[in-house]
Predict the structure.
Amino acid sequence: MEFFRIKRDIPFMSWGKYTTTISLVTFLLAIFFLATKGLNLGVDFTGGTVMEVGYTQSVDVNKIRNTLSALGMSDASVQNFGTSSDVLIRLPAKAGVSSAKLSETVMTALRQSDNTVEMRRVEFVGPQVGEELVESGALALLIVSLGIVAYLAFRFEWKFGVAGIIANLHDVVIILGFFAFFQWEFSLTVLAAILAILGYSVNESVVVFDRIRENFRKMRKASVAEVIDNAITRTMSRTIITHGCTQMVVTSMLFFGGEALHYFALALTIGILFGIYSSVLVASPIVMLLGVSRKDLVPPEKKIEAEGLS
Amino acid sequence: MNHYPLWKYLIILVSVLLGLLYTLPNFYGESPAVQISPLRNTAKADGILLQRVEDTLKNANITVDGTFFEAGGIKIRLSDADTQIKAKDALQSALGNGYVIALNLLSNSPHWLTNIGALPMYLGLDLRGGVHFMLQVDMKGALSKALDRYSSDIRGSLREKKIQYLGLDKEGSQITIKFRDVESRVKTEVEINKTYADLSFREQDTSNESHLIVSLKPEVLKRIQDSAVQQNIVTLRNRINELGVAEPIVQQAGIDRVVVQLPGVQDTAKAKDILGRTATLEVRMVDEEHDLSAALRGQVHFGSELHNERGGTPVLVKKQVVLTGDRINDAQPGFDNNNQPAVHIDLDNNGARIFKQLTRDNVGKRMAILLIDKNQTEVITAPVIKDEIGGGKVQISGSMTIEEARDISLLLRAGALAAPMDIIEERTIGPSLGADNIARGFNSTLFGFTAIAVFMIIYYLMFGFISVTALGVNLLLLVGLLSILQATLTLPGMAAIALTLGMAIDANVLINERVRDELRNGITPQAAINAGYERAFGTILDSNITTMIAGVALFAFGSGPVKGFAVVLCLGILTSMFSAVMVSRGMVNLLYGNRRKLASVSIGQVWKPVSEKR
């Protein structure tokens, strides 16, 4: 079986104008939603308490809300979680209230109204811990970005490093944009997914860049655009198949991973889809825009032969 | 061209066998067990204890599936959870307070596997259920406590030396002593220099007053902080022992934080209560005027109390407290002049003065050091006063082992928290959620793997099958490696296993596509295989390194569950490099390498464009 029967190189580079416009628009939209709606940060980052409780049968969320209001926690958010018998309670961080006692108080009250309630999970994060997690998350993002630029610059050339990271940060911003638009909860695991995607979709750019370099050696007479078009065309089937395979696993996570892995898998899905697009249609035009040339990658003749042997 | 030397095949074979061996324990599952470990180093887990345990269980009609000696404890395997609870209760009442009796799980894998260190993966709290706390030590509180002690000591010294002073104030991290004249200030400086090596001071004279500003030296400040955290950790460990948790983790995190993890604990209220309580240490005199046997019959003299010494001997102790634990600066195990094990206690100035008085008046009598922890009083030690003790250096010796000396000094130090602590993070996972999470992680991996396998085999035929086998080896090696390293497996870690599988197949897709590409160019199959693998390797390396950068950064900056994700991601990249490149190549070589006239390879249809003539 062979999915991709491409007769001629696809002139991707001549579409540069359109792809750049599309990217720019989605990117700006993502920024717009991030700015206006903001991320729905999870308890990991904001601090506060999250409790997941399970009942034996479906439960009236309003009743729980009333129970909590009676405790003076009218600012609690109560919603169903996954099934109608599971409930997620969020309590904002409050100064002066001993967090340790908070979850106990809530559980006691819930047990009084219905003793089948079972405590599934409690997460409490103090405000200072939340701040630190935001800091270290941002730092991790920065370090990963710099590390990747440095690696690509070392392995190829600085133009590739810059193009690769722009393309992939563009993915990151778009994922964040989705999370802002739909107000999905942004937790630590989602952050982990985003960083993993950053490392993963750079692979994509690396594969294309590798081909570009190879083509610069082989296709001595071709123009830069032709070289890049050929590189993209020839790696296309691998790109789609690889991403398809990764997506199979991620889809399996989306269906079987439960609530805990839901947003993690969702972030990966968006990252994978946009990763294909951006590494092909964003990274390469940027490389061209930055004025990559044969000289940048192909060292003087002698060296080529030495490398050719390896 | 497509041959591997024997050693490469051997490496593949050995690593697959090792992977199998160390993955094996994960399939056996676990059965309920009760773990018995002595609370203090002095009590040993030995044959006598084992005999007692076995007798107790026999009397309670509980059948045991097996007993295991381990470093510092005995584990008893039981058939089901009900027997487990029954056994725990029976042992608790029979053995008493000197032992921690905890519910635990024991791997069902055979002995020989355990003996070579093959254990199941170490599951994180989100998979097995339990509580995770992060506590912040209040350093300001610790320092202020220390400063309080110093200011009262300095007051005492000034009084003793009859130096006139106007006042002594504690402000923030320093103490200001005010004098009317420079002369008394200078005298004080001399005194402080002599007695208080930990303090530094500077002078500040105003028009009519002369001030001396005393503060702690930076190295002392650091020492106080370090020892506060250390002491709190020791105290927490002691308290957690009471909870009967099988494998508690108490460790320092950062400069001023402590992480406590209690697997399997559901009663968080009790856990929080025990972690937050304050214990006190008291020195009192032993009541030797009244009859102990009368007291044992219930006629306790009104000025005294009956308490048990460690080991169970009852002691009649006076109610009057002569010294409290915050007068103890330090307690260390060591040896006395006769080279016998001893405990060296260092009292602060005030304590030293009181102690000097106490010992002078009571030579030949016994004093008792009590630990009062949540209405439970225990006599740590009750030594006889041999001589008057001045200078605040106290030594308790005689009839104790080195281990006892260590225990006692630990208890003296750890009687109370050195500084208050706040819970700044809590994560509690119920047992049902833990089990659900395992199933979710497992199913995600299983179905993801199956989908990839089906697709790869349909699309690449034999090469697809080889790729999938390599992927299977990758999974095997990854799980084996995680079991060997006993790295904590969390739910994000399980997600990372699934994800690395999805990403690892990339290497094989790259190779297979490259081989097809070469075939398309019209090279012979053997050459195409060789070229495909060789050319793809550079790309595989590059792309894995970038993912590795992300993994390492996640590990460095991530916390808790994210760290678990990062560990698996990084390990997965390493195993996938090995399996995708070396294992799959090995299989291809075995299959095709020996055929001299290889006409075609089973890699699916290789489509050639018709318009080649162009």
About this structure: The mean pLDDT of chain A is 83.
